Amino acid sequence: MIRVLIADDQGMVRTGFTTFLGTQPDIEVVAEAVNGQEAVTRAAELAPDVVLMDVRMPVMDGLEATRRILAGTATKVLILTTFDLDDYVYEALRTGASGFLLKDASAQQLVEAVRVVAAGEALLAPSVTRRLIAEFARLGGPRAPTVKRLAELTGRETEVLALMAQGLSNGEIAGRLVVSEQTVKTHVGRVLAKLGLRDRAQAIVFAYETGLVRPGD
C-alpha cells in the first residue's frame, strides 16, 4: 500500500486529490496539510511514502517544506503546481523532489505519477525536462566539486547515468546497450548508491551539473 500525504492550501484541491487516489486499491491517503509547515510536521509523524506538495502555500512554501522533509526521511515528494515556471522546476529537483506535475493533469496521470514516484523513479514531463535542460544551459559549465565524484563510477555505470540523463527508461537503456533490463536496474541502483542520490531525478541533475551530459546531447 502506497501511503500518501497531500499538502495544498486549497480545500477543493485536497478533496479532489483524496477522492481520485482513494479509489485506487494500492493507495491510501493518510493525511492532509494546509501549508508547508503542517506538511513537515505530518510527514515527520506519519512517514508517508509520497507527499503531493503544492509549491505556493502560506506559512512555508512547498520548496522549503520539501527540503526539510527530505533532510530526514525516505519519503518521496511529488511537486504539484499550476505554475509551469523554470525556477520552480530547477529548484524543486535540486531540493530532491522526485517529480513535477502540473495540476491540470488528469486523475489517471496523478495516480500513475504517485506510483512512479513511490517506486523510486523520476517523473519529468517533457515540458519540464526541456526547461531543466535550458536552465543548465543558462547556468554554464559544470560544478567542479561534484565532477570528481564521477570517478567513483565504472565505465558502464557512467554510460548508464548519461542515458538516464537523456530521459531513457530502463527498457530503452537495455535496448541501447544490448543487455537485460534487470542488468540496467542493477547499474542504476549502484549509480545512486555510489553517488549518494535519492532517485533518477537527482541523478539527472547530477549528470548535467557535472557536465557528463550537456544541453543538446
UniProtKB/TrEMBL annotation:
This is Response regulator. Keywords: DNA-binding, Phosphoprotein, Transcription, Transcription regulation. SMART domains: HTH_LUXR, REC. The keyword Secreted does not apply. InterPro entries: CheY-like_superfamily (IPR011006), NreC/VraR/RcsB-like_REC (IPR058245), Sig_transdc_resp-reg_C-effctor (IPR016032), Sig_transdc_resp-reg_receiver (IPR001789), Tscrpt_reg_LuxR_C (IPR000792), WalR-like (IPR039420). Residues 146-211 form the HTH luxR-type domain. Residues 3-118 form the Response regulatory domain.
